Amino acid sequence: MSGSLTDLSHHFLIAMPGMVDPAFAGTMIYLCNHDEEGAMGLTVNRPLDVPLRTLFEQFDLPCTGSRGNETLLNGGPVQRDWGFVLHSDSTKQWQGTQQVGGGIKMTASRDIIEDLARGKDAPEHSCVVLGYAGWGAGQLEAELLGNAWLTVPADAVLLFETPVEQRADRAAASIGVDLSKLSNSAGRA
């Protein structure tokens, strides 16, 4: 990675009040990857009106675990039919699991969905999302320079143990920012 690019993997991006794109207004994204080629993240505060049980049924998996009533999240506007699981560390490894940071991993394979449905060998904490947010080379950096996003170091407790509707406010508060007091216009000193 070049010296001019700060790797923001394992950070939250919180949309600033001036964000006009409806796909991102009011969102908090967990950034899974960020390098010279671009960035990829998962929105973690937009629940879909779909319980995990529905996903398990689509995979013909009996839901014998306790996670069937958890809600799927809208991960972003790209590839909305792709599923991703953000999860805590586990002794079990699933196909394609990537370490992101701070004990948070991302897996996009059927085997973890099977374990979540059964409730056996599943990670202790998880968020299942459909779709993702992506940026091409330099695109996220330009948006950051334009004050489109507030960046906050990620925290597993915020991600997995905070109610979805409170995540953005609590993440911002963790760095001393009150989102309700931010203006929707940007300025430069």
The backbone outline, from C-alpha atoms, is globular
Task: List low-pLDDT spans.
Answer: none
Helices and strands: which structural class? alpha+beta
Helix content: 10-25%
Strand content: 25-35%
Q: What's the total number of strands? A: 10
What does this structure look like?
- The structure is a single chain.
- It is globular and about 45 Å long.
- The relative contact order is 0.22.
- It has a single domain, classed as VC0467-like, CATH 3.40.1740.10.
- It has five helices and ten strands.
- Strands 1, 2, 3, 4, 5, 6, 7, 8, 9 and 10 form a ten-stranded mixed β-sheet that branches.
Identify the notable features of this structure and list them briefly.
189 residues, alpha+beta, VC0467-like, 10-stranded mixed β-sheet, 10 strands, 19% helix
Question: SSE layout and pairings?
Answer:
Blueprint: E1 11-15, E2 28-35, E3 38-43, E4 47-51, H1 52-58, E5 71-74, E6 78-88, E7 98-101, E8 104-107, H2 110-118, E9 126-136, H3 139-145, E10 149-153, H4 156-161, H5 167-173
Parallel strand pairs: 5-9
Antiparallel strand pairs: 1-2, 1-10, 2-3, 3-9, 4-5, 6-8, 6-9, 7-8
Quick summary of this structure?
This protein is an alpha+beta fold.
